[in-house]
Each structure stands twice: as structure tokens, then as C-alpha cells.
Design goal:
0% strand, mainly alpha
Length: 528
């Protein structure tokens, strides 16, 4: 453990921008949702009606079961996807400061000094634990300051911190299994996706026993502000202990930069079709593209199935209809629900676009770009091979999402093949209308990579801010000047809304300008 404190200081310095952003945003979402719901539904009768209208298998698949009708319990329920985001951030943080460091060769360099074998893993886990603790403390203090019961605030904080630390431990195990950072992320994200799907299947299908297999559901079973139950903390603590023990045991039984799973050896000679930058980019990006596509197909099926239930809920709740109309821009209740959710999913797809664009920075810092650029490959050609996936990859993901939502919504309408044929093109057009905003974020990442490579984390900060606006902007009735900072606020609200071409053209032009700036900057700066 020698040197752990020094590594903690190094990690905190390197993550001084990214970590505070996701900590603060994820910590304020529960109280923001609670405040918005309390303002929209000031009486107990209205809160009861709101809770009853959303208590159904389709919407419980998205957020989990509704446990009580008070504003705090409903606010925590409405922010039910936030612990998944916290788990994702915790997992990626641990992998970044363990497996990525080994893959880049920095861990071996530091290991030649007075540094203990487990110092790197311990430092990453301690930083992740501190971040989750800060999230929990902000949640507790924000609820208590607003006058809500302390027990419910503590349960909410433990819900978030417990889920985050379980998947930080999952990330620690994944980092020991494979010698590549991409492989470790794939293992950890598969575990997170599997846990979420188990929770969805258990809640939507009425199989509560199935939810006990999901760490995400363990936090919900604490029942914050709904008669707290504390013993579900036991499986979370046990899972953390088992996973961390396994991670340390595996770390002590492998070589630095090696994984316990043997790498798959490739052919002795590359295939003829592999002799191009685009073929290399395909090999680097295909795993993420397939993973995001599969995940959004599943989400699309859930959203399409929930459209009918949500329409019935909004028909009985005028304030809820007004809120969703502001998000979705349509007086048709089903269209307003689908459009409102797709606007949030568009921001999520931007996460893939930013990740794909910043793969160039990862290749550069891992010193894999320089050998490629030392050949006949030009810088512009190398960038273009990655931009194919940053710009066209979202087209694939959004198209699959639109088809999945359209098929599920059409099947749920019960009007036969004719409704399926009618729904799919409408919803597909609505999802593809998100592209100019998605491209603008990808282009921002490219511009930062080319001009200010050390500030590429700003792209993630912008994405987080736009996600925050989408989640609480309508609830808190934020000024339009604030909401207009997000490119997603300028998109047409489809399906059902009016299409205005001018904002789409402006966003596309901005994206082209940012892409050109990034290409110009990269061609003129040094690598590294």
C-alpha cells in the first residue's frame, strides 16, 4: 500500500474537472425532481393521483416501483435512473486509474519507484468511494435543508452510494481480468446493463424475487421516505466485500499490464482489407457501436410499450400533461410522452458520439496514433476514419432506437399491421431529428481535441449540463435563456410537433465549423 496517498493526490488533480461535474449533477437531481414535483402538486390529493397514475408495469420498468405518494418519495422515484449513471461513472473512474494506467505503461514506470503493488488499485477505489460519499452527503444535506425527514435523506444517500460502490468494485474486478481497457469496460458495462435489465424484468413482470439479483434494486428496496427498510444494505455491503476481496486477490496473482484472461491471438498476417485507417477504426469502434445499439434497442422497446400507459396517466392529470407538452411539444398525449423521452435519449446518444470522437485522444495519449501517422496515412485521413463513427455511428443508434420504439408503440396500440406501418416512420423521423444536436456535441469534442487537447473533458461537462437541463428544466420552469444554451432545446418536438428547418441548418453549420477547427488544429499541433 506504500504510495497510496500520493496516488490519491495525483488522481484528484487529474480529475479535478470531470469528477466534480458528475458528482454535483448526480447529487442534485433527486432534490431537484422533488422540488419540481412539490411545486406542480402542492396538495396530498394531487400527489396521490400523480402516484397512482404512474404506478404501472411500463413506467415502473423505467424508474422502478412507486413506493409512496409524498413529494420526496416521488422525487427519488422520478430520479430512479440516476443511480445507474452514478454506477457508470464509478466504474469508469476505477478502470481509468487502474487498467488504463497499465495499458499506457505509466503503472509500470511508477512501480519501479517506492510504490506498493496494491497502491494503484487502492487509490482508485478510495477516490471512487470519496466521490460516492460526497454525492450521499450532498443528497442528505439538500433534503434535510428543505425540511424533509432525515431518515429518508440518509436512505436516499445510501441508495446512491451503495450502488456506486458496488459497481466501483465491479470495475476493479474487470480491470484484473483483461489486459485492455476496452475489454475491462466491456465486462463492467455488461454487468451494469445486466443488473439494470434484471431490475426492469423483475419490476415490470411482477417477479420481485428477480430484483434481488440486481444491485440497482437493492438501493430502491431501502424505500426512502416511504417507511425506510435498512436491511437491504446487507447484500450491498456483502457484494462490495466479496468483489473487493476478489479484485485484490487477482491483482496479487498477475503481472503488471497482464490480465487473468488470456488474450486472443490474432492471425499472423493481417487480412488485405485491414490495411487502411478506416479498417483499424472499425476494429476500435465496433464493440462500442454494437453495445450502444443493443442497449438502445432494449430501451426503445420499453419506451414504446410505456407510451400507452403514460398517455392514460396524462389524460387524468392536467399538470403532468402540461409538463410533458413542454418537453414533447405536442398536444397528443402519446406523442408528447414519446417526444419528451426521445429528447433525453438524444442526449444519451450524444454520450456515444463524444466517446467515439475522443477515441482519437485516447489513441494519441496511448502512443498508438504516432506509429500510424509515421506511415503514408495523413492526419486528415486518420481523423476522418474516426469521424465516420463519431458522426455516422449516432445515425445507426438513433435509427435502431426509432424502429424499436415505433414497433413497440404500434404493437401496443393494438390496431394491427396498419398501425405498425404508420408508427415506425413517424418515430424514426423523430429520432433522426436529434442528429444535428448530437453532431454539435461530437464536433465540440473534435474541436477541443484539435485545438485544446488537454481540455477534452469540457465536452463531457457540456453533455452533463444539457442532461441536467433536460431532466429538471421543465419541472423547475427554468428561464428560456438558460434552456436555450442546449442545442437540444432548438430541435423540433417530434412526433407530432411542427418541423422548422432553420434551427437544424444552424446546428449543422455550427457542427461543420467546429469540425473544421478541430481538423485545422490537429494538423498544426504536436502530438502528445
Amino acid at each position: 500500500m506504500t504510495g497510496t496517498v500520493s496516488l490519491i493526490r495525483l488522481i484528484l488533480r487529474r480529475d479535478r474537472v470531470v469528477t466534480p461535474i458528475w458528482v454535483l449533477i448526480l447529487a442534485v437531481l433527486p432534490i431537484a425532481q422533488t422540488t419540481g414535483i412539490a411545486e406542480l402538486y402542492p396538495t396530498e390529493q394531487e400527489l396521490r393521483r400523480f402516484a397512482v397514475s404512474f404506478a404501472g408495469p411500463a413506467l415502473e420498468a423505467l424508474y422502478g416501483p412507486v413506493t409512496h405518494w409524498n413529494a420526496a418519495a416521488l422525487g427519488v422515484w422520478r430520479a430512479g435512473f440516476t443511480p445507474v449513471l452514478l454506477a457508470l461513472a464509478s466504474t469508469l473512474t476505477v478502470i481509468r486509474h487502474t487498467r488504463v494506467e497499465e495499458e499506457a505503461g505509466r503503472r509500470e514506470l511508477l512501480g519501479s519507484t517506492a510504490l506498493g503493488r496494491h497502491a494503484g488499485l487502492s487509490a482508485a477505489l478510495i477516490v471512487a468511494a470519496l466521490a460516492n460519499l460526497v454525492v450521499a452527503l450532498i443528497i442528505v444535506l439538500s433534503f434535510v435543508k428543505q425540511g424533509y425527514p432525515a431518515a429518508g435523506a440518509v436512505a436516499t444517500g445510501l441508495n446512491y452510494a451503495g450502488v456506486g460502490m458496488v459497481f466501483a468494485a465491479v470495475g476493479a474486478v474487470a480491470a484484473q481480468l483483461t489486459e485492455s481497457a476496452g475489454g475491462a469496460r466491456a465486462i463492467a458495462l455488461s454487468a451494469l446493463g445486466g443488473a439494470y435489465l434484471l431490475r426492469v424484468a423483475g419490476d415490470s413482470a411482477g417477479l420481485p424475487a428477480l430484483t434481488w439479483l440486481s444491485p440497482i434494486a437493492w438501493g430502491q428496496k431501502l424505500r426512502p421516505f416511504a417507511g425506510e427498510v435498512w436491511w437491504p444494505l446487507v447484500p450491498s455491503a456483502a457484494a462490495i466485500a466479496v468483489l473487493l476481496t476478489a479484485a485484490y486477490l487477482m491483482a496479487g496473482r498477475r503481472d503488471v499490464a497482464a490480465g487473468l484472461l488470456p488474450p486472443r491471438l490474432g492471425p499472423e498476417r493481417a487480412a488485405p482489407g485491414f490495411a487502411s485507417p478506416l479498417a483499424l477504426a472499425w476494429r476500435l469502434h465496433k464493440g462500442a457501436l454494437f453495445g450502444w445499439s443493443a442497449g438502445f434497442v432494449l430501451f426503445g422497446l420499453v419506451i414504446g410499450g410505456a407510451a400507452g400507459t403514460a398517455a392514460d396517466a396524462m389524460a387524468e392529470n392536467r399538470q403532468l400533461l402540461e409538463m410533458m407538452t413542454r418537453l414533447g411539444g405536442s398536444a397528443n398525449m402519446s406523442d408528447a410522452f414519446v417526444a419528451g423521452v426521445l429528447s433525453i435519449f438524444g442526449i444519451a446518444v450524444s454520450g456515444y458520439a463524444v466517446q467515439a470522437a475522443l477515441r482519437m485522444r485516447a489513441e494519441e495519449t496511448l502512443m498508438r496514433a504516432e506509429p500510424v501517422l509515421a506511415t503514408r496515412v495523413s492526419r486528415a485521413g486518420w481523423m476522418a476514419s474516426h469521424l465516420v463513427f463519431a458522426l455516422l455511428g449516432p445515425v445507426v443508434v438513433l435509427a435502431l432506437l426509432g424502429v424499436a420504439v415505433g414497433l413497440s408503440a404500434g404493437a401496443g396500440a393494438g390496431d394491427g399491421v396498419g398501425d405498425l406501418v404508420g408508427q415506425v416512420p413517424r418515430v424514426l423521423g423523430a429520432t433522426l431529428a436529434q442528429l444535428p444536436a448530437v453532431w454539435s456535441l461530437a464536433a465540440l469534442a473534435v474541436a477541443l481535441f484539435g485545438l485544446l487537447p488537454r481540455l477534452v473533458a469540457v465536452a463531457w461537462g457540456a453533455l452533463a449540463a444539457f442532461l441536467l437541463f433536460g431532466q429538471i428544466g421543465a419541472l423547475l420552469d427554468l428561464p428560456s435563456a438558460v434552456l436555450d444554451l442546449s442545442p437540444f432545446s432548438h430541435l423540433p418536438h417530434l412526433p407530432g410537433g411542427e418541423v422548422t428547418v432553420a434551427p437544424l441548418l444552424v446546428l449543422t453549420a455550427i457542427s461543420v465549423a467546429l469540425l473544421a477547427a478541430g481538423l485545422y488544429g490537429f494538423r498544426r499541433r504536436d502530438l502528445g
